[in-house]
């Protein structure tokens, strides 16, 4: 189901709760909403659709990917970026990392660990910020 985009900064500033297997339907809604907004959006976190859970979905080099309970465990190569967000107006500055190692769970809640670089890494960092209640 395509959901409305949450623009409530007080809600967006809350740290997300851990996701569980019963949140698979939230991930499905997140993917549908992301695909609906694909012309102006490359990633979304569950709080952007009004659900305070640690779930992100993003364009991973042309294929959508979902992560449950993602966390960055290693990072290198800091740089400054300018980013936009469907939940916020305008473009804002953000400190990002060229390379990140992320631990997360897949849709079967199996743990995964992978290093991401470049644009994909930047998208993931933006969405994990949402999970942490960080408003860029």
Write the layout of secondary structure elements.
Elements: H1 9-12, H2 24-36, E1 43-45, E2 55-60, E3 63-85, E4 88-105, E5 111-117, H3 118-131
Antiparallel strand pairs: 1-2, 2-3, 3-4, 4-5
Short description:
The chain is of the alpha+beta class. Helices cover 23% and strands 42% of the residues.
Q: Could you characterize what this model shows?
A:
This protein is α+β, with helices and mostly antiparallel strands. It contains 3 helices and 5 strands; from the N terminus they run H-H-E-E-E-E-E-H. A 5-stranded antiparallel sheet has the order 1-2-3-4-5. A hairpin with a 2-residue loop joins strand 2 and strand 3. The protein starts with 8 loop residues before the first helix and ends in a 5-residue tail after the last helix. The model has no long low-confidence stretch (mean pLDDT 96).
**Order of secondary-structure elements:** HHEEEEEH
The CATH topology turns out to be: Peptide Deformylase
Give the end-to-end Cα distance, rounded to a whole number of Å: 27 Å
Count of DSSP-assigned helices: 3
CATH superfamily: Peptide deformylase
Helix content percent band? 10-25%
- The strand order across the widest sheet is 1-2-3-4-5
Q: Give the CA-based shape.
A: globular
Q: Please give the CATH architecture.
A: Alpha-Beta Complex
Structural class label: alpha+beta
The main sheet comes to:
5 strands, antiparallel
Tell me the fraction of residues in β-strands, as a range.
35-45%
Low-confidence stretches: none
Rounded mean pLDDT is: 96
Q: What is the highest CATH level, the class?
A: Alpha Beta
Overall radius of gyration: 14 Å
Number of strands: 5
Overall tally of structural domains: 1
